[in-house]
Design brief:
heterodimer; A: alpha/beta; Rossmann fold; 8-stranded mixed sheet; 8 helices; B: alpha+beta; N-terminal domain of TfIIb; Helicase, Ruva Protein, domain 3; 2 domains; 3-stranded antiparallel sheet; two-stranded antiparallel ribbon; 8 strands; 22% strand
Chain lengths: 260, 151
């Protein structure tokens, strides 16, 4: 006689584990924490080494100098640099109640970064079984991003800049965690190679609902040839917000901040 | 996650969650009609994957702690990365929870990166249960009741 196998939803008694409800609670926690954040801006690129963190840090400082309340979430968990770029206080993160108080960086920028938590010179490593680490490492990194959003007392902010690592994976996680996908600030350098990589990532981000704020072309000068920012702007109908030389003056950051 | 006793055509009830060792997570269910119990056993990789999601099989027994997944999972954290509010001295008076020397000794063996969070969970447990002194036995009981793997 065949077994009468039924579906999960055919069984109507409560599921004590309630995993979907636990996931839902995690999402609500993110939404509640960010309820007083005016805008989440993902600073992204499809290419490494274009200066995303550098742009994020100096833009945040300029925004703050201009009177806006700004936070920086360093989502580059494996190569965190925002804390050093922002001269953040490396004292212990204070946990009070249901959240950790963000560190304070230059120009009063609020910050959280894995750099504040890791032992000096050590990579981000997780406890767990030695084999098949690839199966769960991504899930843990996504959980770390969620906790940086939900468990940090960001308070009232005009902007929360999320400094993303190269590629698109972390953007997808961020977009999934937020109630609405973040605005996207794209950073590139002028070269055709950067253009090709950034183009793919930007297209994917916009297809996932991200709103393109514009492009920042970094490291403009004799060393790198090309017109990546202009090409991206034309293709995606977004503005070129800044073309920054290797050593931008504070006025350049102020001008960029004025456009956000 | 639900279990069906196919012989009785009855949904089984969750009984308990346990960590018997070797990275195994056990979730036990019992059929309310015939009484048969079964246990789902996950291998270490599966156990890790579930905990990486920040969810608890069998449901949560303690509120989510700030940055608990990071603090529980990161192996290379700075020992002094966090200052937990509950580590601050409590005011003297009725209801103050103390630590036995043995319990304090055990606590010192918890990595500094997560120690403050662990301490807070045990303190909350003791307060909720009217326990004046936290001993290793209290810690063991709390760990079992709360499903605190690795704490």
């Amino acid at each position: 006689m065949p077994l009468n196998i039924r579906t999960y939803y055919d069984l109507t008694a409560p599921d004590k584990s309630g995993l979907p409800e636990q996931i839902g609670a995690q999402r609500r926690r993110v939404a509640e924490r960010l309820a007083h954040v005016g805008r989440v801006v993902a600073v992204m690129s499809g290419k490494g080494g274009v200066g995303k963190s550098f742009v994020t840090a100096h833009l945040a400082r300029a925004l703050s100098r201009g009177g806006r309340k700004v936070g920086v979430l360093d989502a580059d968990l494996n190569g965190p640099t925002a804390a050093r770029l922002l001269d953040a206080d490396r004292a212990a993160l204070v946990v009070e109640g249901d959240a950790a108080v963000p560190a304070l960086g230059a120009d009063h920028v609020r910050l959280v970064s894995m750099d504040l938590l890791l032992a000096d010179g050590h990579p981000l490593a997780f406890r767990g079984p030695a084999r098949e680490r690839f199966v769960w490492r991504g899930a843990l990194e996504a959980a770390a991003l969620r906790e940086f959003l939900a468990d940090v007392a960001w308070g009232t902010l005009d902007l929360l800049l999320v400094d993303l690592p190269p590629g698109l994976a972390r953007f997808e996680e961020l977009a999934e965690l937020l109630e609405t996908p973040p605005a996207v600030l794209t950073v590139t350098i002028p070269t055709p190679e950067a253009h090709a990589a950034v183009r793919r990532a930007l297209r994917a981000a916009l297809e996932q609902g991200g709103r393109g704020l514009g492009v920042v072309e970094n490291m403009v000068g004799d060393q790198f040839q090309g017109d990546a920012a202009q090409a991206l702007a034309e293709e995606f109908d977004i503005p070129v917000l800044a073309r920054l030389p290797f050593h931008p003056l504070p006025s350049a950051w102020d001008a960029l901040a004025g456009q956000l | 996650m639900k279990f069906l006793c196919v012989e009785c055509d009855e949904q089984m009830s969750f009984e308990e969650r346990a960590l018997p060792g070797d990275g195994t997570l056990a979730a036990a269910f019992r059929c309310p009609r015939c009484g048969r119990a079964v246990a789902l056993l996950t291998n270490p990789m599966e156990t890790q994957l579930v905990s990486s999601l920040g969810v608890k099989i069998g449901g949560r027994t303690v509120p989510e702690q700030p940055l608990e997944t990071i603090r529980g999972a990161v192996a290379t954290g700075r020992a002094d990365a966090f200052a937990d509010g509950s580590e601050h001295p409590e005011p003297d008076g009725q209801g103050r929870v103390r630590w036995s020397p043995e319990a304090e000794d055990r606590l010192t063996r918890v990595p500094g990166f997560v120690r403050g969070m662990v301490k807070r969970v045990y303190l909350d447990y003791a307060r909720e249960h009217g326990i004046a002194v936290i001993t290793p036995a209290v810690m063991d009981t709390a760990r079992t009741e709360l499903g605190l793997e690795g704490m």
